[in-house]
């Protein structure tokens, strides 16, 4: 607890140094004063939040013995019930929300899909990818081009976009994945920027920086009965209510797919590569092929999200696929907990919703958001809902550091 309090003090001092020039200083020809009221309000919020986190960690540190913990685990609510409750809330939510809340929820679902796709690459296979948003762009532009030039509807273009994104993952991944660590991160960052620049300069196909207009929204056919005949009417899902359910369906498919991959033999091979690639190769795992498969499957989920993004906005241009988007998705994976599906869902909600919550702070909302994220990662580096293996790894490292210090 003493260590946590010291860390909290460091965080508060860091926040104070940032807040003074941004909120408190007023400089004129004959005045130099500080507006302490606003500074102390924000500092008070940070201090209370930090103390709550420290108290929670202190309570959780006093764990019961293993037998009692096992008894408690047997009376826990089954995970299926939690997923069922989350599903009910997700289905009921849009019927009682306004369009603003629906739009934010749609963005959360899109980033859940992106986060889970990147989780395959980073969380399971341990490959640091800083150009992941390129596959998001490939999926979006594939649907945009197929729909505007060939009038292919959303549901038929969706699997095509996945295949094209997987192909892009193979083309980019094969020469890239022979590298490791920082070199892999730099090369993937470069490939991500190459894709964006190609989209920005290939005017004959992508319309360059002007983007592609006239993209159709997803649609469905429903039967109409009348005069002894049945006719099918096409209905475009343009409203945010119906787009929310399309995004929810894509997110559910992604959750199920990533869960099955995590539990499969391929998923275990990814985890072994993440732990020790050399040892995995010595045990007979074809590491390059397995890593390439992770890269391609991650690109598939990004392609799903990109195709939906193009259908929702009905317009795409290269400015939507900049590096900061890749960094944002990576933050979702790290904040939620690498390898943890519930953690990434919660991380996406936090990353997308928190800036909206702090919108009342106007110009300083991103400062508040960054401060909240910093406090979170200082006191809970394993993520909001860490995967069991990852949590044990970090606790083992912390214990080893403590023993070394002693």
Count up the helices: 17
Multimerization status: single chain
Can you tell me the CATH class of the domain at 101-374? Mainly Alpha
CATH fold label of the domain at 101-374? ABC transporter involved in vitamin B12 uptake, BtuC
* Share of residues in strands: 5-15%
Report the strand count: 6
CATH architecture descriptor name of the domain at 101-374: Orthogonal Bundle
Described by strand count, sense and barrel closure, the largest sheet is: 2 strands, antiparallel
Task: Summarize the entry for a quick read.
The protein has about 400 residues and is mainly alpha-helical.
Present the secondary structure layout.
Elements: H1 2-24, E1 25-27, E2 32-34, H2 36-61, H3 66-74, H4 79-96, H5 99-124, H6 133-150, H7 154-176, H8 181-201, H9 203-206, E3 212-213, E4 219-226, E5 229-236, H10 240-263, H11 265-275, H12 277-282, H13 287-313, E6 315-316, H14 323-336, H15 341-357, H16 365-379, H17 388-405
Antiparallel strand pairs: 1-2, 3-6, 4-5
Overview features:
two-stranded antiparallel sheet; disordered C terminus; ABC transporter involved in vitamin B12 uptake, BtuC; mainly alpha; two-stranded antiparallel ribbon; 406 residues
